[in-house]
Amino acid sequence: MLKSLLAACALALTSPAAMAACATDAEIAAFVDSYLAKTPAQALSPGGSMEDALCSQAKLAAALEPHLGVVIGYKAGLTSKPAQERFGATEPVQGLLFQNMMLENGATLDAPWGAIPMVEADLVLVVADDGINSATTPEEALAHISAIRPFIELADLTLAGDQLFSAESITAMGVGTRLGVLGAPVPVEDPAEMSRMLEEMSVTLRDAAGGVLVQAPGRAVLGNPVNAALWLRSKGVEFKAGDLISAGSFGPLFPPRAGKGGVSVTYAGLPGDPVIEVFFKE
């Protein structure tokens, strides 16, 4: 997976314009140092094109693999209209998921976990086979998805306050990849019924006291969360069995609240109305 991204990056570097905008090895090294130290970083490929940003992302992913583990899937970001409007984007952005970022439901961790830590209600699709690459509708895609997994993404906006936040700079830094909490798999047994449930479910993010931070229908993510996979396919992503796909946030991102103990997300309308939670140390 990462080899193909780096090959595309090398191809992009053949033009003088790309060479000027794709991050240098020194810039990647400085970003990784900031990332590991959990301190604000300088933007990669500032002012560059989306092609430049994806080139920088591939180089950054190769540099992060020794720390985050191998790439195990993809993520779509800015999948809701409010998120796109906030960052001046006209469509989602794409990033990667790494093995070591995944935590189990009920995990406890120190806050902050990054330079600019954020919490979001998300969802993960588990790819069953590469037939998903020929799908054109959510129902067709779900025939090649083995399970839905609740997911709280613990993102890191990473960039220093004076840096430009744009679709390109967010893409170049990997779309805020840091940590995530996975819930138990919900098997896909009837693709048509699961497609309906994903659109109609109610996703609620709550703080530890039960206060509602976000409440949104499943259709808040691109009309149906599975459309995140179809959008990634439209950008040339080739899925394989076992890949995880993060569909994106169902509402605004929130910083962890000191003394609030953690957050939970409920997926009312999915089988069993699953609940997932994460706890923050005081």
TrEMBL record:
Its signal peptide is 1-20
Tell me which PROSITE patterns the record gives: PROKAR_LIPOPROTEIN (PS51257)
Keyword Signal (UniProt): yes
Going by the UniProt record, its keywords in alphabetical order are:
Signal
What InterPro entries does UniProt report for this protein, alphabetically? Fumarylacetoacetase_C_sf, Hydratase-Decarb/MhpD_sf
Q: Signal as a keyword?
A: yes
Tell me the protein's name.
Answer: Hydratase
